[in-house]
Design goal:
By secondary structure, the protein is mostly helical. The chain has helices at residues 10-21, 36-53, 59-70, 77-90. The model has no long low-confidence stretch (mean pLDDT 79).
Amino acid sequence: MLGKINGISPISNMNRIEETVKTKTVIGSDSVSISSDAEKMSQLLALREKVAQAPDIRQDKVEEVMNQMKNPDFINDTVLSAVADKLMEIFKI
């Protein structure tokens, strides 16, 4: 009587379980190649992200410094030393 409940036969269930347990082992290798165009696009994307993270140029500050530099008394040893220190910091010298 149990074999007829919902039309399920215990023996046919065992066969199905055995079939799902069987697996094949396949040995092979996969490879991926990237075209030179894709590499260039990747580099451009990385550069674009760096530019987006760079600070904006404050034109008002640039103009202010340009006006100060026109004054001969502005450029002295203190200013030159500060500029040299900043350049060395930027270029990691």
